[in-house]
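Task 17 of the worksheet. Students: predict the tertiary structure of the chain below and write it out as structure tokens. Keep your answer in the requested format; marks are given for formatting as well as content.
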Amino acid sequence: MTAPRDRARQALSEAVRARDEARREYEATDGALRQAIRDAEAVGVTLVEIAETTGLHRNTVRTIVRGEGGSPRE
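Model answer:
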């Protein structure tokens, strides 16, 4: 009776580790994207062009450029 529970616990632990690793990778990549957005705006790329290129809403791009955060899921 404990074998199925042990397998389920192991599967949960593996899923949590995979999720945490994916989250770390996402955060690192998101940071690089945000910096690229700020860099592009600093050299004159328009917010509209940045939004079209990244697929983000232009208000999200504006928030990132201002350094106010902005969710990439907006």
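Marker's comment: DSSP finds three helices and no strands in the chain. Residues 17 and 62 are 34 Å apart (CA to CA).
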